[in-house]
Write a structure and sequence with these properties.
- This protein is an alpha/beta fold.
- The protein has 2 domains: about 160 residues, P-loop containing nucleotide triphosphate hydrolases (Rossmann fold, 3-Layer(aba) Sandwich), CATH 3.40.50.300; about 80 residues, Conserved Hypothetical Protein Ylqf, Chain: A, domain 2 (Orthogonal Bundle), CATH 1.10.1580.
- Strands 1, 2, 3, 4, 5, 6, 7 and 8 form an 8-stranded mixed sheet that branches.
- A hairpin with a 2-residue loop joins strand 6 and strand 7.
- The longest helix is centred in the C-terminal third of the chain and has 15 residues.
- The chain is elongated.
- The N terminus is likely disordered.
- The chain binds guanosine-5',3'-tetraphosphate.
Amino acid sequence: MSSEMQHIQWFPGHMTKTRRKMAEVLPIIDAVAEIVDARIPVSSRNPDLKDIIKDKPLIILLNKCDMADPKETSKWIEYYKKQGVSAIPIDCKTGKGLANFKDIVKLTLKDKLEAYREKGMAGKPLRVMVVGITNVGKSTFINRVAGNSRVKAENRPGVTRGNQWVTIDKQLELLDTPGVLWPKFEDQRVAERLAFTGAVKDGVLDLELLAVRLLDNLSDRYPELLADRYGVADFGTDSYDLLCAIGKKRGMVIRGGETDTERAATMLLEEYRNCKIGRISLERVEDNA
Ligand code: G4P
């Protein structure tokens, strides 16, 4: 991800521009693939996508599934299926699940493919626009699926200059722009979950508070993983006490025997983000019902 992308500030002007660009390319694409973070499939989605893409078929790619709880990821896939939305788990770090991408595109667009065949246009490639909020792994995904085929900047009639088309093979082309979307930042819980995963830069939210809130979530949903990793048994009700206990176990003690909670907070967040605590999903289908 370019640093420019990382530092995009989503203010209404930017959002309007991106919406407009997406509306412009809509007529020439066949489907939209939204990449989300499998650990937080709700918070990592763009709140306005449905409204922007109208009835273009949507494919959801649950990325980073190597770090998510596999049980929960399966439930999410079922959940989307029931809603008539195609979804597959992928892991762009290793490439696991990516082989299913072309199949899911073809399955989602089977009526279109059939229509092409009937009209004698069987060779016409399917075009999919890839979107996602910052840090979900969009660049990694594109690089992986593109393999050796080069990303080419190309101008096509009727299309805004500078669109990035990625040719996957004769049957599939991906549109890489304008693919960076905004999350539902105004929702405090969403901002917090994005911060847990490192999708928003540290410094936006208080680190200790963030670690305490992460512990609230983990002690409720994954107490056994916390116990295994940090040797803590009593979770009590106060996650700040738990953070102190965890820090102490790691020898993060300052003068007077108190825990260096700032260090403990940094360590906890880093270990969560690097999947050291375990495969953890912070959003579940049943919360969304
Ligand atoms: P973006 O374009 O959507 O903004 O995201 P990008 O591809 O830059 O990926 C953001 C981070 O997520 C990268 O890590 C990338 O390696 C990691 N990532 C992407 N897909 C997966 C996945 O399926 N599993 C895991 N575990 N990680 C994934 P980084 O720390 O920013 O860089 P680096 O560690 O790759 O150097």
